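Quick one: examine the sequence and fold tokens given here and explain what the tokens say about the fold. Here goes:
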Amino acid sequence: MSIAYSQGTTERSAGVSVVIVQRMNGSIVPLMPRCSLAAMSGIDSTIAKFLGLAAATEAIAEEAARQAAEPIEAAAKARVPVDTGALQDSIHIESEVENGVADARVVAGGESAPYAVFVEFAPDNEPFLRPAADDGKDEAVKTVEGIIAAVIR
């Protein structure tokens, strides 16, 4: 799940919109409709305040995506089969902002547990990442909505 945002300004107005999206097959698919955080015109001091918010949108969007991924990370750690604990310890969140999209991913494996893909996708194994994402999707959306609501208050 990702949070995409766009911002724009004109001489007398400013606007920011946020949409929660999911990347599917290389495309970005909205999980909920685009919602306008604000569109203001007229009062210069109000616009200046809003532009300050717009400048912080990228950091806010990345933090919202990261917080939304936390319950999915916890669920994946709870679901993963544990032998040595290396695979469970490898589960973590990576986040970035690219082209206006804040993206947070729950990742497993790496150098300490290169076999993660086999545990997730082997026919005889129970997957742990996908079910964690499926189960945590609604909570992730609520987390992002709460963060957005707190920002615009």
About this structure: Helices lie at 44-79, 86-90, 116-121, 129-152. The longest strand covers residues 13-24. The chain has one domain: 2-152.
